[in-house]
User: What shape does this take?
Amino acid sequence: MDRHRIYSMSVASVYPHYVAKAERKGRTKAEVDEIIRWLTGHSQATLEDELAKGTSFEDFFAGAPRMNPSRTLITGVVCGVRVEQIEESTMREIRYLDKLIDELAKGKAMEKILRAPGGTHAAAP
Assistant: This one.
């Protein structure tokens, strides 16, 4: 199986597109950052450090401090593929992030995006 080129792309090269997509729909960079921090366990400082270093998607997810266990609740279609059926772990993590950004841009409430039980923001255990 050939490695997909997204694995070697830097998160920083795609990040402005995530922010632009959110902002076009009246959402904010802070919300994009919150989603990424929720998914990966990064603090704002470590997220900014990874972006500044030009970390690849593969290394970004492999080195994430604590992938949120609630991410498995993310379902739906991204790029014509059901995220919950993606077998390759790195691609699944990338598509989880894509799906969360899509939900943000579609106006979904942050509590729902972050799969929070009872309507409060879920923290990773």
Notes: The helical segments are 11-24, 29-40, 44-53, 57-62, 89-105, 110-113. Residues 119-125 have pLDDT under 50 and may be disordered. The CA atoms of residues 61 and 93 lie 7 Å apart. The two ends are 34 Å apart (CA to CA).
